[in-house]
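Researcher: Good morning. I'm working through a list of sequences from a screen, and I'd like to move beyond sequence-only analysis. For each chain I'm collecting a predicted structure so we can compare shapes side by side. This is the next one on the list. No need for commentary yet; just the structure.
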Amino acid sequence: MTDDYGFGTRCVHAGQEEPDPATGARAPPIYQTSSYVFEDADTAADRYALNDDGNVYSRFDNPTVRMLENRIASLENAVDAVATGSGMAALDAGTFVLAANGDNIVTASSIYGGTHSYYSNTASRRGIETRFVDTLDPDAYAEAIDEDTAYVHFETIGNPSLVVPPMEEISEVAHDHGVPVFVDNTFGTPALCNPLDHGVDLLWESTTKWIHGSGTTVGGVLVDGGSFPWDEYPEKFPELGGENEAFGKNFSEAFGDRAFSVAARQRALRSLGDGQKPFDAWATLQGAETLSLRMERHCENAMAVARHLEDHPEVAWVTYPGLESHETHDLAQQYLSGGFGGIVTFGLEAGYDAGRRFCEETDLAQFLANIGDAKTLVIHPASTTHAQLSEAEQRASGVTPDLLRFSVGIEDPEDIIADIDEAIERVT
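Model: Good morning. Structure tokens for this chain:
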């Protein structure tokens, strides 16, 4: 029913179109239970054999969590979604299903420092190689892909480079090689970007950020576009297109276009314990109701901040996809709808030390390791989020020593700008 409604309406209603059938409650109930009673032995056996999709155990299935999954699937124009305990848990769950020892992953270089570290230092311990390429060059992806490539990865808006990749061209390159495209849409959010409409196959997001929007609840989500033909590559993707070793059935045959999401739930969440908790899902459902409205304000405020910084005498440079001066402004216009995101990055003429001090001197903007909050936030990535990377790796990720990442909140824009100006004055 909700698929016929606009985005803002689906933010409020998708996933719970009707009141709770047990009580008539209109607000989403919290099903705070570890497990569920089986009607009989046959039902129990069918659920464990994946012949019945009823609930078994809340580590990997829960009605409250399912409401959130259905809402996000609707907002992303997807066939299904799987909620996880964090954004990084979503990335790990997707990688667990798609990649194995001896495989490689081809990823854009301009990505979040934690993601870069995951690929460099965590996936490598499982025997998975990562190949970092120029984010904006489809030919670089093509050169890096080989028969052992499990997936191609990029961010819809780079963190913190803010570059928007040529999604359709990269997706075409990957598909020409029989490789799925798995991207991070955290900065884009479904309010601004629907990558599945541009050739992408799978998404992951941190729901901690704009989807929730209040800085209280950690979570993530895997999103299944249902588009990749897993059955054409049974040897390469045995979890999906061949006989799954854990269940003895072919997930593509059994679950059709939901093969990936079912595998992620039954193989990753069930085995690794990466699932989202009912209360966290309930809290995120509340936040998602206002996603459309909040993103409008985030984008409006971010544009005002970016334009102000462009004219500030103590600012050496400013980056925002909405500015005509941004290197991927045309791509941002092509792939982002309704705004250009809530993040602005800039550097001060006074350089590295002044940037670090700026974070200490703001009053309204909070100095902490998060983005997408209703409150304005700031951090100095070179000394924090990307500090584990070498200087060369930082540069490849779009992080310069002076870069400040400014997550613009929904406060009055005049107050945000005044806070910036006062902090700059204190450090220069």
